[in-house]
Design brief:
single chain, about 375 residues, about 0% strand, globular, about 60% helix, mainly alpha
Length: about 375
């Protein structure tokens, strides 16, 4: 009889644990985010028209004219880093999947983007826009719609923000070896063009939103994270991203830099860790602290995940052999600094919180 009661108690405890897990999954957003990710709404590209009046009488334009127009717009004859390239567009023209008018409009739009971004300081290479992937297609976008949207009046605030951000980033990458500019300063400085964008564009016209992004300060943080690195953190057990920028994730300064230099590089190599105090970096191989900082700020500031969850992720990676104890310790120290100097106050005073975090993380 006593054995049966013990078994029954264990079953009740197990059933209670299952019920608590189910309750958490359905009623506690922070638990749902860990397993299913942040729900996001992105602007559907299918509402964007690629038709203009400028080239409506050029349906019979020859292949040679289209090729010259694309070349003049800054595209390369052959793909560079996964872009379509002139040859790819001409193949589509031959197959009838695009028309000469569409490609002439596309070339005109690319020239417009190049000139606009050049006005902000550093021109964004046309090949950067010339990419089509599954994430774009899933949201109804393709390069033609992206270029048409950004070259329209409604798209200019976003284009200006990306152009200003890349100008600041390019200045950092082009600095002399003894310059005082750092990765930490550059990353945090990118809040400035982002803030201008969010203050200008109404919520329902933004490329991505979420019901859990509650105010403009959180919107600025989310777009800043996307424009800095665009990457996310995966649940180490389920391997599902905790948040996902969708097709917009590639629209960050590191991707533009790769097209500017014609070389593929990971975010850690692009950014480095200059400016961070050694205790927030740890061993030399832990060179992705800009990315780590941006993800920690987003996960704690928007998803409201407790510090314990992030530290548990670090310990999981350490136990799994993906990080050594010194690396995990540095990452946990960075998470703590983000909590103390940014998350607690950024919704009340974003500029002051940015500067507080900068001072806390900066190498003396």
């Amino acid at each position: 009889m006593e054995l049966d009661q013990t078994r029954w108690r264990k079953r009740r405890i197990a059933l209670l644990a299952v019920c608590l897990c189910l309750f958490g999954l359905f009623f506690i957003p922070q638990v749902r985010f860990l397993f299913f990710g942040l729900p996001e709404d992105r602007l559907d590209g299918r509402v964007i028209s690629t038709a203009t009046n400028a080239n409506r009488n050029q349906e019979s334009a020859g292949r040679d004219r289209v090729e010259r127009a694309l070349l003049d717009a800054g595209l390369s004859p052959q793909p560079l880093l996964g872009d379509i390239g002139i040859e790819g567009h001409l193949t589509r023209l031959d197959e009838g999947t695009v028309t000469a008018v569409q490609l002439l409009d596309y070339a005109e739009g690319l020239r417009s983007l190049a000139l606009r971004t050049l006005q902000t300081g550093r021109q964004i290479p046309s090949a950067f826009w010339d990419v089509e992937n599954e994430a774009m297609l899933a949201d109804g976008w393709d390069p033609y719609r992206v270029v048409a949207a950004l070259s329209s009046p409604d798209g200019l605030p976003y284009l200006d923000a990306l152009g200003a951000a890349y100008t600041r980033f390019h200045a950092f990458k082009s600095r002399d070896s003894d310059a005082s500019d750092t990765a930490l300063d550059t990353a945090l400085d990118l809040f400035m063009p982002v803030s201008t964008l969010i203050d200008t564009v109404p919520r329902d016209h933004r490329l991505e939103t979420s019901e859990y992004i509650r105010n403009d300060e959180q919107a600025k943080l989310y777009f800043w994270q996307q424009i800095v690195v665009g990457s996310s953190r995966q649940n180490p057990v389920t391997h599902i991203p905790i948040f996902d920028h969708g097709f917009i994730r590639r629209f960050h300064v590191g991707t533009i830099w790769q097209y500017d230099i014609g070389l593929s590089q990971p975010n850690s190599n692009i950014w480095g860790v200059s400016g961070f105090a050694p205790r927030f970096v740890g061993p030399a191989e832990n060179n992705n602290q800009v990315e780590h900082m941006s993800i920690s700020m987003t996960v704690q500031g928007i998803l409201r995940e407790p510090l314990l969850v992030l530290d548990a992720f670090e310990e999981f990676e350490r136990i799994a052999g993906k990080a050594n104890p010194t690396e995990a310790q540095a990452d946990e120290a960075l998470n703590q600094a983000v909590r103390e100097h940014f998350v607690r106050s950024f919704e009340q005073d974003l500029p002051a919180s940015i500067e507080s975090l900068r001072r806390a993380l900066k190498a003396r």
